Amino acid sequence: MAIIASNFKTNHTRKSTAAFIKEIDSFIKSNSIKNEIMIFPTATSLDSFEISENLKIGVQNAYPVEKGSFTGEIGTQQLDEFGIKTILIGHSERRHILKETQKQIAEKYNFYKELGYTIVYCIGEPLEVKKLGLEKTLEYLYEQFENIDTNYENLILAYEPVWAIGTGVSATNEDIKAVHEAIKKKIDKPLLYGGSVKVENVKEICSINSVDGALIGTASWVAEDFKQIIENTKDL
Ligand SMILES: O=C(CO)COP(=O)(O)O
């Protein structure tokens, strides 16, 4: 069983998201796909979708609050309207571009953990850290687990090296294997790989023993491609 997830980031409209989800759902049904498929659309495209059990819609980000005065944020009141129970936390774009600190990330994690959300928790190192070697890379990655309960039952991890995100250059299988095996030794949770996963390499990457699936950006935004990705991994 693999977990295949699409992170829309800041792409697609409400209309194109609905069409995408419908298309993916009918593909899942007509091809008897058993893997767990996840889609993370923009917050403005969330809705109540009548879809297969194994297709989950998640939110890319939310504030650790039910409701209140937090201009520009959304909380569980808005997520509950659509029955959203899956959230991405710790994505590198939020850490680096939006400057979320580990403290804020941990607060968010603990809040959504208490509510039983499925949390896809992302970790990853920038290029300057990777260049220092595996030991330093792991040290850096483990710091991203500060105040994070890694025994949480609904936790899915995603290793996304920052230098491989959106660059078209995925980590090598050796790099992925080394990091995944080390993390797996410490934390017994599903561990996805993300960073320039595409139609052509998804099967090979997801076939690595310590890889439980993929979290995909760019290559998943065209429905035909995402269907091909789902097809290529359906026997894993
Ligand atoms: O950040 C990612 C998924 O969360 C990966 O993005 P790309 O697939 O575009 O490299």
What does this protein structure show overall?
It is a single chain. The mean pLDDT is about 95. The protein has an eight-stranded parallel beta sheet with strand order 3-2-1-8-7-6-5-4. It has helices at about 15-30, 75-80, 90-95, 100-115, 125-130, 135-145, 175-185, 200-205, 225-230; strands spanning about 5, 35-40, 55, 85-90, 120-125, 155-160, 190-195, 215. By secondary structure, it is of the alpha/beta class. The protein has one domain: Alpha-Beta Barrel (TIM Barrel). It contains nine helices and eight strands. The longest helix has 17 residues, at about 15-30. The structure holds 1,3-dihydroxyacetonephosphate. 1,3-dihydroxyacetonephosphate binds near residues 195, 196 and 216. Homodimer. InterPro entries: Aldolase_TIM (IPR013785), TIM_sf (IPR035990), TrioseP_Isoase_bac/euk (IPR022896), Triosephosphate_isomerase (IPR000652), Triosephosphate_isomerase_AS (IPR020861).
